[in-house]
Amino acid sequence: MWKNISEILKNKEKELRKEYPEKSNTSIKLKLTGYFFSGIYRSVMASYYLRKCSTGRLVSVNGRPKIKNKGSIILGDRVRLWSVIETAKIFVHNNAKLIVGQNSRINGCHISVTGLVEIGENVRVSPYVLILDDDFHDIHNHFEKGVQLPVIIEDDVWIASKAIILKGVRIGKGAVIAAGAVVTKDVPPYTVAAGVPAKIIKHIKNKHNEVFS
Fold this sequence. Notes:
Elements: H1 2-19, H2 25-49, E1 54-55, E2 60-62, E3 66-69, E4 72-75, E5 80-82, E6 89-92, E7 97-100, E8 105-107, E9 110-113, E10 116-119, E11 124-125, E12 130-132, E13 151-153, E14 158-159, E15 164-165, E16 170-171, E17 176-177, E18 182-183, E19 191-194, E20 199-203
Parallel strand pairs: 1-4, 2-5, 3-6, 4-7, 5-8, 6-9, 7-10, 8-11, 9-12, 10-13, 11-14, 12-15, 13-16, 14-17, 15-18, 17-19
Antiparallel strand pairs: 19-20
Helix pairs in contact: 1-2
């Protein structure tokens, strides 16, 4: 664990020196110290709010999330659950499962799981995003149970503010979901989806400069 913390602090110091090139070494060290102790505080908060979850190393909480877990919540290493702009709300129903991969950041979104929602590694989920794997009500008889299908969000996805991800959707690796989009169908890897319902508006290059069509 201490090795991971040391690496994180080294990376953070590089970021600070790049962001504040005019600052002295002392100022940078003070900022780094503040970052370290705030990280400890957030980890302590995580141990309280996520006490009914299975968590990896250095999982942190910022703010006060609302969590109801009657199933299984599995959070990988360095997952960050933030409630800075909006309260993060996570509801996992009986026998349901939410999985979040390492280094993913979930900030102020609402996730409701009756079956399975799986979020990959290095995913960013913005405030006011809604993720549902269930219709909850039948389209013909609103008093009957709706359709439930898993939601899969692959690695390196960014979901912008107020997007809605509905049941049965797979969002491919490296995709971007634009603000306010309503995703009702699969989104291919390395694409940008926008609109209501969401459609592919752009293809983007991955780290190897390959374009997926």
